[in-house]
Structure formats: C-alpha cells, structure tokens
Amino acid sequence: MVFTEFSYEPGVMPSNNDPHNQIRFADIGEAEQRRQTLIEFIWPDGLPHTQPLVTEGISELDVADHLEGLDHNLVARIDRLETDVLGVRSLAYRIHPKQKAEVSRLAIIHAGHSKLGAFIKRDYTDSIHLFLRFGFQVVMMHMPQRGWNDYGTAELPNGVRVDISSPEVYKAHAAIINLPSQDEGLSTGAGFRVFLEPVIAVINAFKANGGEASEVVMLGLSGGGWTTHMAAALDKRIQLSFAVAGSYPLYLRNQLPCCVGDLEQYFFPLYDEDIAADGSGGGIATWLEIYALGGIGAKRHQLMLTAPHDSCCFNGDPEQTVDTFKDVVADSVKNIGQGQWQHQLDTTHKDHMISPWIIEKVVEPVVSDFISV
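Below the sequence we write its predicted structure tokens.
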C-alpha cells in the first residue's frame, strides 16, 4: 500500500463546486453500496464488533471533575467505558436513568473538541437531563486528545509507537489520520477508526444488552457534530441524529474563511467532490452523500443544525452556505423513499453551542415523536 501523508493546512479543496452533482446514488441499493464503500474505507472487514471495557457503578467522587452539574436525582448508576483503538484510549461515561422506559434506549452525546469540563456547561447538562427524563441511557464522549481523552501515543499493529500528543489539536488529529503512513498493513482510512470506533463500540455493548429492538439517538456539537454525521452515515443503528455545527462541504471551504478545521474534516481521499458530469471521479463519499446516508434507512432521521452567527464554525449567510445544498440532500433522501433528512437554522445566538432553542424547540419535540411511534 502506498500512503501519501497529508498536511493539516488545506489548500484548494478538490470539488466541482456543484452541489447538484455530488450525490452519486439514486435508489436504496446504490445508497447502501456507497455506505458499504465508506465502511470498508475505514474497516476493510466491515463494521467492528468491538465492545468497551466496562467498569460499573463508579462513585460520584470518581467523576466529580468530569460530570459536575449532573442532577444525580435523575441517575441510577454511572459506568466508565474504555475502548482501545490502535493503541489510543477513548474514555466515555454511561449514565443509567432512574426513569425506566419500556424500550431500551441509548443517547450518545458527543462534545467533540471541547476541553475537560465541557459537560459542566448548561447546553450539555440540559441535554443529558432531557434524555434521562425520557428514560434513555446517556453516554458522554469526547474526540481523541480532547476532554478526558489524553492518551498521547498510538501503538500500531506493527509495533510502531506514534506520538499524537501535540497541544495543537489540529496537529494531533492530523497525526491520527496519517497513522497508516506508519504501518503498511493499515488501510488508507484506518486513522478514522480512532475517532469513530469508540462510538460503534458503545452501540455494540448497548445492543448486546438491550436487544435489536432497542433505540439509539446521537447528538453532537462541533467535532461532536462531525462525529455524529460520520457515525450515522456508517451505522444504521443510529436511528435519530442531531449534528450541530459540525461540517460543511468542501466547495464551501473553497469560498469561506470560516471552516478550515482539522484534517478529518477535509481528508481528500475520502471527501473529494471533483465529480464529472457522468458521475465518475470523486472520493469515497462526498459530504453531501454522508449527510444523506445519515438519514437514509427505515425509521431513520437526521437533523443538521447551524447558526449563521456562530462564533466558531460553519456560520455565514444561509443563502450562500446551507441553502446551496440543504434541499439537494433532503430531496435525495425523500426520493429514495426511506428515511428523512432536514436542516434547521438557529438564529437565536452568536455563540458556539447547543442552544436552549435547539434543546427545547428541536431536540425535545423530535425525540418525543420518535419514542412515541
């Protein structure tokens, strides 16, 4: 295998700049084939069966620094989940609700790039409490090298140890995406395993205990929004997903100063949008295809949320940004006839957050409808 190491400073993004020509599937069979191609880019043998190491019933003192602000009146038990992927540890916490639901339900809340203590913030605690009241188990996660994930080396299958401990997160994440350059036995997309396999492992463990009828929802902000888009495109068991300020297609990155981001956001072999009129060319899956795959499938629904005045990421005039692709994606999913995809614009703030409006006016009613069906 020949692997070209990629820079974390993007130049011109490979794109035909035409959102109407960036979804290369027209029916459910073609969509599922694109999903399988995406899966095999990261895991050549298919979605992994990994499960995390579980420590059940940890004390409140053990998580005081990580989960301050949690209303323990809603909590029956907290477990620690640890997943090792290519020698990189991912830590998560699973909160069991006191309010039991008739059907086993899981909500993954992903804080992305947030620093340690993110789950103290009101937008996260309000989200956690909402799902606990609905009777969901809630799992809280960070991206690699962020929050409580501070394991600074990757130990590859060939025994090579790679330093991924840069204090500049975009350099740390570039080192992770470029891990295949250090091990010829790894596929080009194997670095994405470190970001996504912990999510798959959490779902595997949940399904092993809750059964196939159990329900999975995912909510993420920023890098957590990116993770939500990617995980939902890969794993159809995520039935309902909310991706907040997590990504833009490459053609918008060519036009806007807002969204350079980390290498996992624009890795050209994956997202290349330079597709010819006959449908040839392009990468493994364009962003528009990934969005659509997040909603395609029986009883599946994805909502992408952005704020035009977001202080961090994926902002800008809607007419020049999300309006250029949202109907393309929504119509693609609608025409396939399985699932639903929507974009929602949040004009209520100038911050980078899961706003009270998102929680109260979007997440709560959509989840309520989802669990009542």
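The CA atoms of residues 74 and 314 lie 34 Å apart.
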